[in-house]
Amino acid sequence: MVKYKKRTSHSNRGRDFQTYINQSIERYATLEVAEIEEVATPIRVEKVDRTTKKITSAFFERKSTVDYIGIVKGKFIGFDAKETADANKFPLKNVHEHQIVKLVRYMRQGGISFLLVHFKAQQETYILKTQDLMKWVEGSGASIPYQFFKEHCKRCGPGRNISIDFLAALEM
After folding, report:
1. Residues 164, 157, 81, CA angle at the centre, nearest 5°?
2. How many Å is the maximal CA-CA distance in the chain?
3. Quick one: which of 9, 56, 89, 114 is 20 to 30 A from 155 by CA?
4. Which residue intervals of 15-138 are DSSP H helices?
5. Please, what is the angle between helix 130-138 and helix 97-108, to 10°?
């Protein structure tokens, strides 16, 4: 089981989880199992301090896509990583509309799309497929109970010397 450090700052929420995902992706590339990349959020730099060469003012140019995209065994894969501190449920407010739109478009084109959801209290990570996500979004629920994940979603654990082997959970 992968344990994440507790953070006190809200600015880096999910950073440990993302670090483990990025390590998993590096391992997949080394094993030549998949090519997956983290998608950077596009920003527009407005001001740079000329003496320190640091950005002093910037803003998000537009809404981005999902956190990760790539290819696995000739299939497109796109997913977003989400983390919740709530032990009983995953709040749907954590998923932005533009992310849902992208995941649905990927799914409709025959790609693999999902949310990788980590419950911090249980130290468990699950794959929530886009079609299951849509049932909850269209059902106008505010959250998805933890029990749904336990009963209907694939749990991702370590494997193949990979901290979060989500491709094994997807049987890829």
Report:
1. 45
2. 56
3. 9
4. 15-30, 97-108, 130-138
5. 130
Phi then psi for 164, rounded to 5 degrees?
A: -125, 95
CA distance 35 to 24: 11
Tokens encoding 159: 């494997």
Between strands 154-156 and 124-129, the pairing is antiparallel
Q: Whole-angstrom Cα distance, residue 56 to residue 163? A: 36
Q: What pLDDT, in 10s, does the model give residues 96-132?
A: 999 999 999 999 999 999 999 999 999 999 999 999 9
Q: 133 to each of 10, 100, 104, 107, 145, how far by Cα in Å? A: 25, 9, 10, 12, 12
Would you say the pTM of this structure is higher than 0.85?
no
Q: Quick: pLDDT tens for 28-79.
A: 999 999 999 998 765 666 677 788 877 777 655 556 689 999 999 999 999 9
Q: Residue 134: which residues within 8 A CB-CB, separation 6 or more?
A: 100, 104
Q: With b meaning 16 or more CB within 10 Å and e meaning fewer, what string describes 114-147?
A: bbbbbbbeeebbbbbbbebbeebbeeeeebbebe
Instruction: State whether residue 8 is helix, strand or coil.
Output: coil
Q: What is the CB neighbour count within 10 angstroms for residue 75?
A: 13
